[in-house]
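Justification of computing resources. Each target in the renewal requires a structure prediction run like the one illustrated here; the chain below, 171 residues long, is used simply to show the kind of job we budget for.
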Amino acid sequence: MSTVTLRLATDADLPVINDIYNYYVPRSTCTYQTELEPIESRREWFKDHPADRYPVTVAEWDGEVVGWGSLSRFRPRAAYAPTVEASVYIRHDCHRRGVGRLVLQDLIDRARRAGFHSIIGGVSADQTASIALQESLGFRRVAHLVEVGYKFGKRLDVLYLQLMLGSSTSL
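Resulting structure tokens:
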């Protein structure tokens, strides 16, 4: 594999970001969304992700976007401000090549620089590769919600993993 580069996403990246995400909607429990994400909704989502606070990044391999990640508000209430939620999606044909690790590590670094105190990763309990990735980077399992999702005719558990960043900055 040639070198993967990471950069902040731009408006021009939104169609491929959406395509990567939408691939999984009808095929996977890595998202509990059941309807494809319209590009207009993705554009609105992007507006809520200023690069200095809640960045969206893309991974490029040979000049082609093959994955993306984002930091998002964990919850809308003000007291949750020190915590963000990380999301990582890698193009389906680029798994197990280290791209997800690069994207998540970059998000961790960006969260530290922004002064966040912790990062949450929410994941379907059947997504063992995603869980292993997060745990390999120091995330700990902090919650197991039983049968809170339903997709593909089965009830699904959700795990929450958390990485404490140790930031002394108060937000």
